Amino acid sequence: MNKEKKKDNFDSAAAKISCLALALSLVVTGFMLDSPQNIMSGLMNFPLHPDVLLSDYFVIGGAGAAFVNAGIVTFISIGLTFIIDTTYSGSTIAMIYLMAGFALFGKNPFNILPFFAGVWLYSRHVGRPMRKYTNAALFSTTLSPFVTTVFLYRPFNPVINVLLAFAVGAFIGYIIIPLAEHTFSSHMGYSLFNYGFAGGLLALVLTSVLRAVGNTVETALIWNKGVPVPALIYVMVLTSVLIISGLILCKGEMKRLLALFRHSGQSPSDFVNTDGIGPVLINMGLMGLVCLSYILLIGGDLNGPVLGAILTSVGFAAAGEHPKNSISVIVGVYLASVFIVHDAHAPSVQLAALFGTALAPISGQFGAVYGIAAGFLHTCVVLAVGPLCGGYNLYNNGFAAGLVAFIMVAVIQDLLNRKPKED
Fold first, then answer.
1. 390, 389, 300: which is closest to 352 by C-alpha?
2. Can you tell me the distance from the alpha carbon of 372 to that of 98, in angstroms, rounded to the nearest whole number?
């Protein structure tokens, strides 16, 4: 028992170090790419932009400022986990990497903090410690564009606008928790982005209200094309460090990695707890390489949103994703881009391939054929739901994945459980 506790403490400490290293690497990379003056100017631009999908921070503030913003948001997220004494596990790594990724195209310190306050109020209301709601505090920031929009477009002075924006974010952070608990039961953990599903439903309602009272609600498309060498180098270095670190910790025992591949990934999955930090780090690096390879093979782009999607997938390789259950979903997205969309290079389709791995548990549980079908269907759905939410739900793919999982799992289970009639 004592030996097992020491292992858990070691894994938790290693997970913390890996997240801190991520935050530091983002800040250092940012300052290597641009001057402090330009970075500061770019950081000031982010809160003054509506942040609705798709808003590439590489374009809005520059690559240097985007990286630094991602590092700052990551440090803030880690700081929150320290303050509320969150135990580091696979899901914690997933949360931190997701926050880093989306800070490249929509999140910044200004528009995420109000959600923390709302979650804190909810924890006080139900009489439970806030560490029980770490997921809610970080994942609820999917609707952070609402905060920025209220601040920018309310007809009051800046102080009142800030207070209103803060109140809106806190309100959303408060009410999304019971909603997310309810939506999880609908897809039974076969979508890894549950808060994307809950956030999409809430965004759909709030956006409808905005449209009903006469507000114009439109999505955006600010997208940097091409594969910048610094971004490519960053992903290559990050994935290499993760794999090498994992190999060192595994001491060459690859059987532990193969054991991880046997998990379906159905949420809640915690690969750190079940397999140890060594195999998890290797898996994280491999998932990063899988995502990067796909983008390079199709001639896609490596900008803020795509890099953010890669970081998200790397993070969820600690809590549900691995190459065995994810590649089939990516194949399904590609097939849909060939036969339905006819454009694998479209921004939304590139992101669908990477974020669509939220449906990896379907492949892991029911097989690769169903994974391909899930990816194919996900592509069709994600292209339709974005405009409905007005771009306010940053986890738009999570919303689509939740809908796909809700429908597919019910049908699959019925088909597999139905027995042939007796003569």
1. 300
2. 24
Spans of all domains in the chain: 1-417
d(CA 373, CA 363) in angstroms, rounded, equals: 9
Residue 392 CB coordination number (10 Å)? 28
pLDDT in tens, 56-112: 999 999 999 999 999 999 999 999 999 999 999 999 999 999 999 999 999 999 999
Tens-place pLDDT, residues 117-158: 999 999 999 999 999 999 999 999 999 999 999 898 877 788
CA angle 398, 142, 130 (to 5 degrees): 110
Secondary-structure breakdown of the chain: helix, strand, coil percentages, each rounded to the nearest 5: 75, 0, 25
Mean pLDDT for the stretch of residues 343-372: 96
In whole angstroms, what is the distance from residue 257 CA to residue 49 CA? Answer: 43
Which pTM was predicted? 0.94
SS3 128: coil
Which DSSP state fits 419? P
Share of the chain above pLDDT 70, in %: 97
* CA-wise closest residue to 403 among 370, 335, 356: 356
Task: Report residue 343 as tokens.
Answer: 């454009």
